Each structure stands twice: as C-alpha cells, then as structure tokens.
Amino acid sequence: MSFIDTIDEADANEEVRAMYDRQSSFYGFLPNYAKVFSHRPECMKLWADLQNGVRRHMDRRRFELITFVAAHALRSTLCSLAHGKALAKYLSQEDVLRLARGEFPDSLSVAEVAIVMFTRKMSRNASDIVATDVERLREHGLSDAEVFDVAAVAAARAFWTKVLESLGVEADAPFHDMDAEFKHTLACGRPLSFRAHGAAVTAGVLP
Questions:
Q1: For the chain, N or C: smaller number of CB within 10 Å?
Q2: Could you state, in order of their start, the residue ranges of all structural domains in the chain?
Q3: Residues 195, 139: Cα–Cα separation, whole Å
C-alpha cells in the first residue's frame, strides 16, 4: 500500500488511533493515505488546518476545479481520481474528462478558463508564471486576494501529491470500481494496477 511500513490499527497509540477513527468515520474505511501519516499524526491535523484555510474564501466548485487541475498537472492518479469525482458534482463527467485531456469545456466561465490556465502553468512550473498571467485573472474579475487563493489552493495540492506519490500510496479500492473511461483517463501518474511492494510497473501505463 506504500513504500514505507505503517502502524497497524491494533498497534496504534491514542493519537494515531484517533486520527484513524476520524478518517474511517468520514470515508467508511481507512484510506491508504492516512496510514502513511501514522508516524506523524500531528501533520494530518496541520494539513487539515491548511486545507480549511486556503479554501475558506472560495466556493466548492472553484476549489474542486483548481484542485483537480493541479492534481492532474502534477500527475497524481490518486488525487485526480478523488477530486475528479468531486468535481463531477459541479460539471458533467464528460467535462471533467475534457479538462483531463487539456481542453476547456463550454460549461466553464471565462474566469474559470483563466483559472485553469493559471493553475496548469503554475503546477507544472511556478517560475514560468509572469505578471501577465496574474493580470489575465484580474481582467476576468478576480481580486488580488482571490488570485492569492487560487495560488494557495494549487500550491497546497503540490505538497499533498508529492508526499503521497513519493511514498507510493496506492489508490483505494473504491476508485477501482469507477467508470472505466473516467478512471483510465484520470490515471495520469501511477497506474491503478500499481502495487507498492510488488513487481515494478511503469508509471502512466494504464491497466
């Protein structure tokens, strides 16, 4: 399930057990990502605080749009699946697939198109962002505070994906039951057939 050994629920101390219980009660199962935080459960709380802070000033549609686009640009299969599914509550599934293919669905507003462009560029290489990229967001109605929010949400996703991907966290079983085209298109990094302790599999090759 990951490249590192994690603490079993039966062996967990009070702090780890409490973290596991919170995650399990929310999802109905203990996600693989939570297990790698068993060595530093306090970091899970810090991550939750960061997430709540950076998304507080935007609606859920914008948050999921930015998060999905950032996750896909960062080539995180796990986060692309999770937030692609969440974004499909606000866009059609086909429009989520179009975003994954690098397109701009008609359902996006002009401001959202600008946000997607900024997020993709920033996530691939933040040093490529220039003043005109920010000015484009302003031209479509975003305040400087909102521009900060976009950058902060995308940057937070970079932290999360790099922790999970570098530790080999696998996608949880429910993701394997998603629609075939949807899950295969969104599997932009590690394949869903990846096994952390099994034979090596080339990242990006879909099952």
A1: C
A2: 6-56, 58-166
A3: 46
pLDDT of residue 207: 25
Per-chain mean pLDDT for the chain: 92
8 Å CB contact between 178 and 156: no
User: By percentage, how much of the chain surpasses pLDDT 70?
Assistant: 93
> Is 117 within 8 Å of 108 (Cβ atoms)?
no
Distance, C-alpha 7 to centroid of its chain: 24
How many angstroms separate the CA atoms of 64 and 43, rounded? 22
> What confidence category does residue 205 fall into, taking pLDDT thresholds of 50, 70 and 90?
very low
The residues, ordered by sequence, that sit 6+ positions from 107 with a Cβ below 8 Å of its Cβ are 91, 92, 95
Residue 203's pLDDT is 33
Q: Do 73 and 123 touch, CB atoms closer than 8 A?
A: yes
pTM flag (> 0.85): yes
Q: Measure the CA–CA gap between 3 and 164, rounded to whole angstroms.
A: 10
CATH topology for 6-56 is 1.20.5
Distance CA 198, CA 184 (A): 21
58-166 CATH fold? AhpD-like (1.20.1290)
Structure tokens at 119: 């997020």
Q: At what angle do helices 93-100 and 77-87 cross, to 10 degrees?
A: 140
Given this model, what pLDDT does residue 201 score? 37
Task: Give Cα separations from 17 to 39, 89, 205 (angstroms).
Answer: 12, 32, 36
